[in-house]
Amino acid sequence: MVDKSLSRTGASLLIDALQKNGINNLYGVVGIPITDLARLAELRGMKYYGFRREDSAVNAAAAAGFLTKKPGVAMTVSAPGFLNGLTALAQATKNCFPLIMISGSSERHIIDLSQGDYEGLDQYNVAKPFCKKAYRVDRAQDVGLAVARAIRTAVSGRPGGVYLDLPADTIAQLNEDLGEKNMGVYKLVDPAPLQEPSDAAIARAVDIIKQAKKPLIILGKGAAYDRTEKQIQELIDKTNIPFLPMSMAKGLVPDDSKHSAAAARSLSLKNADVVILVGARLNWMLSYGSAPQFNPNAKFIQLDIEPTQFDSAQKISAPLQGDLTSILNKLVPALTATGYKVPSDWTEAIAQDTAKNDAKFAKRIQAGETNPKFGYYGAIEPINEYFQDHPDTYLVSEGANTLDIGRDMIGMKLPRHRLDTGTWGVMGVGMGYAIATAVETGKHVVVLAGDSAFGFDGMDVETICRYKLPITVVVINNGGIYNGIDNVVPDQLGPTTLDPTGRYDLIAKAFGGDNYYVTNYQEMKDTFAKAVGSGRPSLINVQIDPSMGKESGHIGNLNPTLNLKPLEEAEQEKLDKE
User: Fold this and answer.
1) 178 CB burial (10 A radius; 0-12, 13-18, 19+)
2) Amino acid 4: pLDDT
3) Environment class of residue 336 by beta-carbon count within 10 Å: exposed (0-12), middle (13-18) or buried (19+)?
4) Phi-psi region at 339: left, alpha or beta (left = phi > 0; alpha = psi -120 to 50)
5) Fewer CB atoms near the end CB (10 Å): N or C, the chain?
6) CB 10 within 8 A of CB 166
7) Quick check: 34 pLDDT over 50?
8) Helix pair 54-68, 430-441: axis angle to 10 deg
9) What is the predicted pLDDT for the residue at 539?
10) Percent of the chain with pLDDT over 90
11) Contact predicate 214/274, CB 8 Å
12) Sheet holding 471-477, edge to edge
């Protein structure tokens, strides 16, 4: 006979509150004090996905939030497990992905007196700077309210991460408030209310756009998250305004659209006189909107739900505050009613620059197919070909050169089908993002990772195999961080050197997945479609030449350089004398 008191425990109330609000998947790593909580979740009909490290589990929950617009939920153990998950919690907040990270924690009276509890840490206060909000639940009767607050905080306004601290005592504690029939558990009413901009703000933006000779739309991942593709496509089709998608906004408008300025990025940014930011921020990825990358006389129109984002780096001439869907639902008809069309000389200039750059790029790709030194272009082109024929496949990418070149090469036709390292450029997201994407969408997922990036979370290939998920992991192995030929001191391995002969594919074999090893374009072309088409967990080790790859990929300017040449020459002279 089932003990009825179990339904009054903090653990049971937590599960009831999540399910009541449509959250049925949990990602985590179990141990003291949450093991039975995870078991109970499964017994109550939830799906639990167990990972090998907490950061991967929290990354998975973050990706689930981005894909579903409901907060993904991750669970970790106390102290070290909590700290492992903290980086992913912070990143989710920076990326504006709705997430709830729940960690078991030590008893308050022991922590507050610093008495030295097992894995003792004041997790609640540690988490505060790294998320939108942190909550601690000291009474079982408050669990339902805490979940409600966490969900609303995660999804309302600018989405982000929330930390929920669950002391061990609260997990097993009984709700003694017998006067409440639902024991404090309820479904939220309108957790993320729509926010419309004022008519005056819309009119101001329309007036600026109407005067634009060289307008440009920049699409950020916020536009993808808010499912604005219909409005964006209507706006572009009716006005001919060219667009530039940030990496996770690719596919909002198909990359092969004639209005895309992606291949003419430098020209479009330097010359645009009006820049319309839709769910994009003027941070380091957009050079803060500054010259010489941007026209110093450009006027900025920004669509964002967070008012403090306006004027963060440049003067915003027309701030439009609200959720992006509501803004576009007013802005698009207001602008198209004026009959505004982009001057043809601007679209022709972008088209000419695009054609010129596409031709150069095509030569690189063609050369990559036959280059004796097998490299990135030959390795990635078969992936692009597959995606053009199978657009409803999801892509997760991380690395330096692998990420940068793959972003340029792989065209996306559907929104929210590309996830990558995001605002912070953090590595180690690949397995977590891919696992959640496969779970939440039921579609096949391709992970494209450099060998260095794969090392951060590669053990979760076992998780992929354990749950038999349709994920193909492609590791581009050049034997190093950036490349594998760094050897500044003859008798030492260079700081960026990894193992160029490593057989990463055998990790999949060890756990029952399919493994492939390729060393040239034709092998990759033959292998990739086969691996993805199988629907099985698989890993392809793509062995490229160790000399392939440049320092920091496309952002080498962010990596300070020192004049090491005199020291290197001295080392070589020393070697020559020996």
Assistant:
1) exposed
2) 76
3) middle
4) left
5) N
6) yes
7) yes
8) 40
9) 98
10) 84
11) yes
12) 418-419, 394-398, 445-450, 471-477, 538-543, 514-518
Q: What is the mean pLDDT of residues 293-316?
A: 96
Tokens of 158: 């600018």
DSSP string for residues in 215-279:
EEEEE-HHHHHTT-HHHHHHHHHHH---EEE-GGGTTSS-TT-TTB-GGGHHHHHHH-SEEEEES
Non-local (6+) Cβ contacts of 206 within 8 A are 331, 334, 335, 338
Query: Of 421, 423, 424, which is closest to residue 402 (Cα–Cα)?
Result: 421
Taking the C-alpha atoms of residue 141 and residue 94, their distance in angstroms, rounded to an integer, is 32
* Displacement of CA 235 from its chain's centroid (Å): 26
What is the DSSP secondary structure assignment for residue 553, as one 8-state letter?
A: G
Give per-residue pLDDT as tens, 216-254. Answer: 999 999 999 999 999 999 999 999 999 999 999 999 999
Q: Which helix (H) or strand (E) holds 300?
A: strand 299-304
Amino acid at 156: S
Q: How far apart are CA 417 and CA 250, in angstroms?
A: 8
pLDDT band per the 50, 70, 90 thresholds, residue 571: confident
Question: Helix, strand, or coil here: 400?
Answer: coil
Tell me how far apart the alpha carbons of residues 332 and 232 are, in angstroms, rounded to a whole number. 8
Q: Tokens 């408030």 appear where?
A: 177
Strand order across the beta sheet in which 274-278 lies: 243-245, 215-219, 274-278, 299-304, 316-321
> Which of 216-220, 339-343, 529-533, 555-559 has the lowest average pLDDT?
555-559
Range 401-407 average pLDDT: 95
pLDDT digits (tens, 9 = 90+) for 88-145: 999 999 999 999 999 998 887 787 878 787 777 999 999 999 999 999 999 999 999 9
Per-residue model confidence (pLDDT) at position 552: 78
Q: Which two tokens stand for residue 472?
A: 């193909």
Angstrom CA distances, 198 to 42, 204, 223, 319, stand at 47, 10, 20, 11
In the chain the first and final C-alpha atoms are separated, in Å, by 82
The overall average pLDDT reported for the chain is 94
CB atoms within 10 A of CB 30: 19
pLDDT of residue 179: 61
Residue found by looking up tokens 């007013």 in the block: 330
User: Where in 346-393 does DSSP place strands (E)?
Assistant: none
